[in-house]
Each structure stands twice: as structure tokens, then as C-alpha cells.
Amino acid sequence: MKEQLYTIPVNEAFALDCECPVCAMHHKLKEDALDFTLGPSYMEDDIRMVTDKVGFCKEHVQQLYNKQNRLGLALMLKTHADKTIRDTSKLVKNYKPAKPSLFKKDTETNPLLTYLEEVQHSCFVCNKINSVFDRYIATIFFLYEKESDFRNTVDNCKGFCSEHYALLLKEAPKQLSGKYVEDFTNALHKSYIKGMERVRDDLSWFIDKFDYRYTNEPWKNSKDSLQRMMMKQNSLEYFPDEGKK
To answer: Is 163 exposed, middle or buried (0-12, 13-18, 19+ CB in 10 A)?
Structure first.
């Protein structure tokens, strides 16, 4: 089946010792997309046609900059700017400022403002990530129905971040059949709450360690609890043991 093409990266993410395997999948897709964008592909005409049109969001353009291929990024931004200038130059010819009215609600769409809105919110890297990420999510449910070992993995994982907990809850009724919906959501509730409580307790001890009364006490599992809680609550990319199975 088509979904089986994606079982390896999904299983690998759930095998990582991290606070959210879905974050791990997204992180790997993002790194692959960034590397692809700044690899030899950016010199290919079909890729450049797309990057010239959609550009990059502020988050990913900063991450591309941090990859150190300044010439590659400069070439893509320059030709994207060329297209933006051409398109804007055409649209400004017919631009008319909206007239404010106290009695009439402004419902007219302005082509120039619509274009600028699209440019600001389009991103080659985002599109590349999302095109595969949705299939990864579908594969989680595919594996849950088909493989008992994967069901055990979900039951015993460290939980999920709040964002992906909500995503999986939302998608479960669409993707699963019969009793698997209830089984999956119950496992999801349990792993999320248990994981949050575990990291919360580690964070409490981290806070206590700043009290002089606990100076000589061991750190236990609290040293990176702040980063792990940021991952739980805010989907922070934090994978100190990435690569360990």
C-alpha cells in the first residue's frame, strides 16, 4: 500500500527518546527541506520557478541563512525579488486607496493588497514540509490499525506536545475505523497527561534546585526540564538524544 512508503520515518520518530515523536517527524522534514532548498536543486529551472513565485516565510528564510550557503540564498532571493517587483509594478498602476466610511463595511478586495498578502504567507520550505507531513500523520493511523507492535509503541511513548496532541485527536475520527478510534484517543489522552505530569515534576525539581536548601541535592532528571516543557507546550525543537534508538 502507498502508506507503507512512509512507515520507516514514522517508526524511526517514535523510536526516538523525545517528548513528541510528531515534532521529531516535522523536525526531520524541515531539515531535509532546508538542505534540499540550498542543495544543487536551487539551480534547476523548475525549482527556481517555484521559489521565485512563492519565496520563503520569515522563519525559514532565517534558517536558510543560518545554513551558511549565502550565495545560494542570495540567488533565490534576488530572482524572487525580480518577480515581486515586476508583479507589484503592474498592480500599482490600478491601485486606488479604499475610501473609509462609517456606514459601509469595506468588503472589496484590492488586487495589490491580495498579492502582497499571498507573498507574505507563502513559503517553498513550508510547502515541501506540509506535502509529506500530512502523509506521515495518515501513516500513524495506518500503522495503529495494522500493527499491534505500533499500538504498544503509542501506548508507551513519552507523550506529545499540545499542538500535535490536538492534531491527532482531531484526525483520529477521520482516519480510524471502529473501536480503534476509542482505543487510540484513550491512549493519546493517557500518554499526553502522563508525559506532561512527568515533565512538570522534573521542572518543579529544577525550580527547587535554585533554593539554597537543595543546593547539595542531585539534579535527577531536571537539568533539561525547561527545554522539554517548552517542547511540550510550545513545540520547541529539542532533541538532545537525536539519533539514539
So the answer is: middle
